[in-house]
C-alpha cells in the first residue's frame, strides 16, 4: 500500500512538472510571437492619426518598401486613430516590445533627450528648407543619438509642418491681435512660455479633447499643422486661420530598441534606407497636401490671414527670453550649433 502511494505521488509530481514546463514554454512562445511568427518579424505600428492622414500614407509606403525589399521577412500591422493609446503608451510599448514602431512629435521625447526641446523653440526655423537641412544633417543625428538605452531608436525626422493659428474671435495679422486669446497647449513649458510671451492665455488640453474644448468655449484658439486641423475637424468650430510660423515641428520615426536588435544587418539597412527615401518623398507630398488643405479650409468658410510685414521680427523679439532660458537651463551648445547653421544656410 505504501509502495502504491509512493508511485502515485511520483506520478503526480511528474505530471505537475510537465504541466509547469509546458506552461513556461507556452509563455515563451507567446512572447516570441509578439515579434516573430514562423520566422517573420512582425512590426506592430501604432499612431494617433487616421489611416488617410498624409503621415499615415507616407508610413504605409515606407512599410511596403520594407516588406518588398526583405521578401516578407518583416511585415507590418497597423493600429491607427489611437487604438493602442497615445504617445506615452507607444513609448512604453516599445520599451516592453509590445509595440515595435510609431511616429510621434519631438516634444514627446523630451523626457529622454533634453536637448530635443530645442525644436520646441518659437520661430526657430525661418523656412522648411532650412529645417530640413539642419535636421537631416549632423545636428539632427546628434540629437537622436541620445535615444539609445531608452528602449527606442530614432531613424529619421519627417516633415510635420508649421503650426497655423485658428480661432473664433478675430483675424490675426499682428502680434497685438493675439492678446487675450485662450489657446490650447499640449503642456510643454517652452510652448506655454511662448504663448504667454505673445499675450495669449494657454490652457493644457489633450488632442482628444481639443474639439469639445473649442466647442464648449474652454479655449477659443489652437495651433496645429494643416493636416491635423483637417483630420480633427476643428475648422467646424473656428472662423479664422493665420500662417504665423510660430513653431515648426518634425515627426520622428521610431522603432523599439529590442526589435531593431533582432534584425539582421541586411534587414536593418533596408529599414533605415527606406525611412530616408520616404522622408524625401513625404516632404514633397506633405507640401501638396498643405496646399490642398488650405484651399479646403477656405472653402469651408475660414478667413485666411498672413502676419503683416515686420510682425515676425516683433514676435521673435518678444520670445527672446525663452531662448535665453533654454541656453541657461537646458543646452546652450545644441542651440548655438543650430543657430550658426541657420545663419550659414540663410546666406
| Proportion of residues in helical segments | 40-55%
Highest-level CATH class of the largest domain:
Alpha Beta
Runs in which pLDDT lies below 50 for 5 or more consecutive residues are 1-34
Give the CATH H-level superfamily of the largest domain. Answer: Bacterial extracellular solute-binding protein, family 7
The fraction of residues assigned to DSSP E strands is 15-25%
How would you sum up the major sheet? 8 strands, mixed
Here the CATH topology of the largest domain equals: D-Maltodextrin-Binding Protein, domain 2
Explain the overall architecture.
This protein has helices at 2-33, 54-69, 87-96, 128-136, 138-144, 189-197, 210-215, 226-231, 257-261, 265-299, 311-318, 320-345, and strands at 36-37, 40-46, 74-79, 101-105, 152-167, 182-185, 201-204, 221-224, 240-256, 303-306. The chain has 347 residues and is of the alpha/beta class. It folds into two domains: 1-30; 34-345, 3-Layer(aba) Sandwich (D-Maltodextrin-Binding Protein, domain 2), CATH 3.40.190. The strands form two sheets. Strands 1, 2, 3, 4, 5, 8, 9 and 10 form an eight-stranded mixed beta sheet that branches. Strands 6-7 form a two-stranded parallel sheet. Helix 2 (54-69) links the parallel strand 2 (40-46) and strand 3. Helix 2 (54-69) runs antiparallel to helix 10 and helix 4 (128-136) packs across helix 12.
